[in-house]
Protein 1
Amino acid sequence: MATKNKKSFTCLGCGETLDLESDFYASSSNLYASIGRIPVCKKCLHNNYKIWSVQYKSKKVAMKRFCMAFDIYYNDDIFDSVLNSKDNKKPILSQYIVRMNLNPNKDKTFDTSIEDGTTFNIDENQEKSSVPEAVKSRWGAGLSDDGYRNLDQHYKYLKKNNPNCDSNQEIFIQDLCFLHMQKMESIKAGDKKGCIDLMTAYRNTFDKAGLKTVESIDDDACLGRFVGLIGSHIPEYIYKDKELYKDADGIDEYIERHIVRPVNNIKNKTSIRDPEYCINDMEESSVNDE
């Protein structure tokens, strides 16, 4: 069986000679009718789409710009369905172009989009940020929405634990927020060394700022903490009468009255009563003499 001869084509972007069918997307545009493909390889197209996504800060606007540049049909509903697709293995651009090359969109171009009423307006179509302007003003422009949220969340955490910080500590808190955000980015990027360096810088900045975190309290140590606090103001050794606070909480008296005395009576078959209800032999004889 004879094998089909593969056709090669030189990409107009990177200049590499690649396989025409596997490395170039199909196109219905009359501009590329001689080869039936977009004359820029898939790798270059994906790079262009990424650049436009960053430039316009919107995947949708970037897709419109892409379709305009390479004479591809654009449709909002189709793009939204691709954007919300559960297929995360294939890039958005690949999924969109594949759908454009299927019926009933196979023979459509960007001119068809214009006839359908599609316009390219960066200001109107740019995705709106959900981050409040006050948050952007605090941290400066140019960050992603996730970056702003990361900064603001950590800022609120530090401020909650340090509500009375001064102006100098406020500066340290903002520096700590940026270090925290950079640390999270290092973790996502798998930069172990960078993460360790940022953690060290965070601890040093935190110590210099004199800030504090929430201190966990052991319920079993509450009494000891209270006694230590009282002792720090009025040390126990200053009292001359050492018996004055010997049984301040009455625990010893309670144990003697309700545990030790009844158990001894049962064990020794005696009838010893509580001191206030007990008259010894000498006291009884003096009462009788009177």
Protein 2
Amino acid sequence: MAFTKTDLPRISKPTSPALIALLIQIASLLVLLLCLTVAWQSFQFKLTLIQVLVAQAVLTLLLTRWFGLAWWWCVIQPLFPFAVVATLSLTLPPWLYMTLFLIFLVVYWSAFQTQVPYYPSTESAWLALAPCLPKDKPFILVDIGSGLGGLILHLGKKYPESAFTGVEIAPLPWLISYLRGKGNGGNVRFLRSNYENLHFADFDVVFAYLSPAAMPGLWRKAKNEMRSGTMLVSYEFPIIGVEEHLSIYPENDANFGRKLYIWYL
């Protein structure tokens, strides 16, 4: 089943929690600097570096909770000022900072936009998924957050009459998967896009390995767009409040508590 090029619709995206977290850090630093300046000019009062870091951590935590960010931001945000000072104390060459920044940018770009970090699914999950796929006819499957393309390439070879799409927003993983897909026949393609730009009605199976933060939005999109009789699969992360129709422990994953959750629309 060969693919033809189609234009994917663009939709507006909500403000990224990562951007809110960054603005909170900047705001807390500016407020703290203003308070310290007034305290010094009025009372000749000043704080040590560790006291400044503790004060910013507390202020950042309060603002993070006030803005209602997820609980893990309440852990990350207060530690960030200490991490910055610790890193600067290493006196590493500037080019190394830039190199590390660019590497993280091209690999983890999706985490900034979607709250879904890069973390690949396992071969055990691919093998456990295969028996659950439609058996009586060719099908169209999309892997949202496809990473390096392992699942799509595996299934593309196993089911040559079906069609498979991998969707990845991070530049480097998408490029690697795109290059790996060259020469694998006409039933595999990789798109660099946000899955929100897809229309789920175009697929018989939607596979997702995202994060807890993304699951409510995924379920809303699936309910609104997927056709009757199609299948939504999530690896590791359930949809809170929505009971799955089937759950499977892939071999070697049970000890880690990772399951395949399957819903039939």
